[in-house]
Amino acid sequence: xxxxxxxxxxxxxxxxxxxxxxxxxxxxxxxxxxxxxxxxxxxxxxxxxxxxxxxxxxxxxxxxxxxxxxxxxxxxxxxxxxxxxxxxxxxxxxxxxxxxxxxxxxxxxxxxxxxxxxxxxxxxxxxxxxxxxxxxxx
Length: 138
Known about the structure:
Helices cover 61% and strands 10% of the residues. By secondary structure, the chain is mainly alpha-helical.
């Protein structure tokens, strides 16, 4: 066996990289012509927004550990801008029956207004109680 010098090893590495690049380009050209790949790429594009919203919802729920689940009192409902409004579970069921929410999203943002107003009132009451030295975390 012969010892390779550093220059020979570097040249061999460059040749291998060129060959790998050529193979990759050839594979990409073949794949880009495939109707299946084109359809799957379009499907991925079409589902991008839906998937992003689903990930946001799951991240929000996971970041609130112990708050959301089958026995939770509140259900986070998304608005069009991606923010969430907490709705009592019973009210959420009523909203579903009245077709004002679907898939944990408000059909129209105006349907979120009463819940946002209630949340704001609660924040103000908690802030006032805190300023007086009371609890106010509910």
